[in-house]
Design brief:
The chain is α+β, with helices and mostly antiparallel strands and about 190 residues long. Helix content is about 40%, strand content about 30%. It has a three-stranded antiparallel sheet with strand order 3-2-5. Strands 6-9-10 form a three-stranded antiparallel sheet. Helix 3 packs across helix 5.
Length: about 190
């Protein structure tokens, strides 16, 4: 009778709403993969952990959303400054960083070194090393320490300062290229 017809109608509506709900969920999931890249940025697309596009240009793009895909977007048309041997802001809980350096004649000098850099390859920067900015800082400290270990205090404070900056830039870029970090050192400023 009539109760059976009403029950069939209700079942028919339920069966029609299931595909609609599935389609809605799939559309929302696919829309989750839409992302934008600003004019001063670049992007890297990964699918199943593999790079599928190394240098995504500015605009609106799509990549499979997580857990299948991942997108890394960062500023690549911007210059950054990394303090070497000191920190711009002291953070509680982090080890203190000193701007004191030892020279070959066992004198202690104060140098503040700023490395200006940009990202040459976002894919290399994001994927080659776990903490590429810390690698830049540590490599800079190692290069400067090595240079100062061969110079006396008088030379460093007078005529060797420009040579120190040039040597630091060249040797630091060698280290970063060898590690494949995607970082381009633009200048080294010594205060």
């Amino acid at each position: 009778g009539p109760a059976r017809l009403a029950e069939r109608g209700l079942m028919g509506r339920r069966l029609r709403t299931i595909p609609a709900l599935v389609a809605l969920v799939l559309a929302a999931y696919a829309a989750w993969g839409i992302y934008g890249v600003e004019p001063d940025e670049s992007g890297v697309e990964l699918v199943f952990g593999r790079v599928v596009s190394r240098d995504v240009l500015p605009g609106i793009h799509w990549n499979p959303p997580p857990p299948f895909g991942q997108v890394i977007v960062d500023k690549t048309a911007t210059s950054f400054v990394m303090p070497v041997g000191y920190q711009f802001i002291e953070r509680p809980g982090e080890p203190a960083t000193s701007d004191l350096w030892l020279t070959a004649d066992t004198n202690v000098i104060t140098l503040r070194v700023n490395v200006q850099y940009s990202l040459r390859s976002l894919a290399d920067f994001a994927l080659a090393h776990e903490q590429p900015r810390q690698l830049l800082r540590r490599a800079g400290e190692r290069v400067i320490t090595s240079y100062l270990a061969g110079q006396g205090v008088d030379a460093v404070l007078t005529n060797e300062r420009q040579r120190l900056a040039g040597a630091t830039l060249a040797r630091l870029q060698e280290v970063l290229d060898r590690e494949g970090t995607g970082i381009a050192v633009q200048s080294v400023n010594i205060e």
